[in-house]
Amino acid sequence: MQAGSGGGGGDAGDTRGRHRIRAELKKLEQEARFLEEELEELEKTDKVSAALQELVVTTESKADPLLPV
């Protein structure tokens, strides 16, 4: 016989469950914000990469003045 088991603490368990869900939601929102910031940085990196690639091509097409011909 399990009379009274689980009784008396139902409201506290429900509150803890809601708190746990809110904490998880907050964590997920923080991760989403972090990923959005990371994407913005990557978009900037693409522009820098294109500029650096152009610099490399330009530099490689010119002879090095320190090397003998």
Automatic annotation (TrEMBL):
Q: Tell me the superkingdom of the source.
A: Eukaryota
List the subcellular locations.
Cell membrane
Q: Where is the G protein gamma domain?
A: 23-68
Query: GO annotations under biological process?
Result: G protein-coupled receptor signaling pathway
Write down any Gene Ontology CC term: plasma membrane
Q: Which UniProt keywords apply?
A: Cell membrane, Coiled coil, Membrane, Transducer
Provide the protein name. Answer: G protein gamma domain-containing protein
